[in-house]
Amino acid sequence: MSLPWFRRENRLVFPVVRVDDRLLHGQVVVGWGQTLGVAPLLLVSDRVAKDDELSLTFRRLIPEELRGDIVPVTDAAERWVRGEFKNARVMLVIETPVDALKMVRLGAPMKVLTLGGLHFREGREEFLPYVFLSDWDRTTLQELRALGVRIQCQDLPTSKPIPYGE
């Protein structure tokens, strides 16, 4: 898919890694997954992966053509390191910036992290209408940037990405 506002520095980088505290929902599955033709769409969450009922519920939300799955953080990082995501339109949905940091520390060569949905909760302040950050989130994002990860905010692939922390 070619979006008209893409410049070289804003091009979509696969795998797409999106932080969304609601995990899988219409905006992720349809707005990102189906629009970009991703496969596989992986929900990366230790919490969900160890809960059989919750995993089954989320698996049912992913259309068959997206070849979705639920995987723990370590498994996703290992698959990335082994090269399983090379030349594929993979999308990883994670719940928190901490999960992204874990993946990078495990060797995943993450270039871009997209903040797509961190919603209001006690202790978070609004950065954008769809991104509310705690002090812990900001510290984690700062560490990711120091490790060379470009961080951007983008609710939909048709929206222009907004750089974080530059």
Topology:
Blueprint lengths: L15 E5 L5 H11 L4 E4 L1 H4 L2 H10 L7 E3 L1 H9 L9 E4 L2 H9 L6 E6 L7 E4 L2 E3 L1 H12 L3 E4 L8 E2 L3
Parallel strand pairs: 1-4, 1-5, 2-3, 2-4, 5-8
Antiparallel strand pairs: 6-7, 8-9
Helix pairs in contact: 4-5, 5-6
Task: Tell me briefly what this model is.
This protein has 166 residues and is an alpha/beta fold.
Describe this structure in words.
There is one protein chain. By secondary structure, the protein is α/β, with parallel strands linked by helices. The protein has one domain (about 10-155): Fructose Permease (3-Layer(aba) Sandwich). It has 6 helices and 9 strands; from the N terminus they run βαβααβαβαβββαββ. A 7-stranded mixed β-sheet has the order 3-2-4-1-5-8-9, sandwiched between helices. It has a two-stranded antiparallel sheet with strand order 6-7. A hairpin with a 2-residue loop joins strand 6 and strand 7. Helix 4 packs across helix 5 and helix 5 runs parallel beside helix 6. The longest helix is centred in the C-terminal third of the chain and has 12 residues, at about 135-145. The model is unreliable at about 1-10 (pLDDT under 50).
